[in-house]
Amino acid sequence: MDRNRTAVILCGGKGTRLGSIGKKLPKTLIKLQGKEILWYILKILKKNNFNHIILPIGYKGSKIKHFIRKNKKLISNVNLIDTGVETNIGKRISMIRRYIVSSNFLLLNGDAVFDFDLNKMFLTHKKQKRDITFISSEIIYPYGTVGVRNNKVIDFKRSLKYEALRVRNDKNYIAYNYTGMSIINTKKLTKQNKKFISSKNFEMDFFPSFIKSFKSNLVKLSGFWHSVDNYKDILAVNNKKISKEKYMLLKKIRKKL
Q1: Which of 178, 200, 218, 250 has the fewest C-beta atoms lying within 10 Å of its C-beta?
Q2: Are 116 and 179 in contact (CB under 8 A)?
Q3: Cα→Cα distances 130→54, 103, 215, 218, Å
Q4: What are the φ and ψ backbone dihedral angles of 203, each rounded to 5 degrees?
């Protein structure tokens, strides 16, 4: 049994879709209801028994270092590793993998706030001896949708919540939304190192290969998940006029943290 449980938070990229905010801050330090995304992530990881954090920093890395120094009480065991500003994700992971201390680790993007039983998922992943477990969540489809039941049009909606997509001409295929969070076997990651170290798109090069070679699983989370991709995503949890539901849920999460 691992004494330590590692989480790798990807936080080295540029927030190019955030405009002027992304020019001042790394995405993970953007504030949601007065607290940085990284503050939420570290609090929730600690709550779920993750006691070792690796931050492969790049863009505006000095600001992340300052945040960690200022918030030492959040979590004590943190590795801050400079991986370069222009480095691709695969190379970043290759540069930090020797610092991973647990037999399985959590890989996650540093741009999402979440609150669910991650500890249970991690234990299930180990118990079932999976090599990778993808975490899926519902997401809001921003366009209009025409609802059909029994071949009859029944409604029209916008901002519909969905968790999976059906693919045309393949009734047996269901595509689930990926949260940017996965639990990975550390030794199996090392075996795949050459496949992703020079990849231009880490997810598209690494995950398909990993799925073919090792035991994979998918779990659908039950709880809160909100990813920040653009300015509207910030407003959704900072201004209840945009999304009252998400505003209130995050307010509740912050209060209990």
Answers
A1: 200
A2: no
A3: 22, 12, 5, 10
A4: -60, -45
Q: How many CB atoms lie within 10 A of CB 238?
A: 17
Beta bridge partners, 146, equal 156
- Domain assignment present for 1: no
Question: Cα separation of 209 and 214, whole Å?
Answer: 9
Burial class (CB in 10 A: 0-12, 13-18, 19+), 92: buried
CATH number at residue 43: 3.90.550.10
Q: Are residues 147 and 224 in the same domain?
A: no
Q: β-pairing, 6-10 with 52-57? A: parallel
75 and 153 both lie in a single domain: no
Does residue 247 lie in a domain region?
Answer: yes
- Residue 46 forms part of a structural domain: yes
**Residue 9 Cα distances to 53, 148, 157, 255, angstroms:** 7, 40, 35, 23
Looking at the fold, whether 101 and 204 belong to one and the same domain comes out as: yes
The rounded distance, in Å, linking the Cα atoms of 28 and 70 is 15
- Strand ranges (DSSP E) for 193-254? 216-220, 224-227
The predicted model scores a pTM of: 0.93
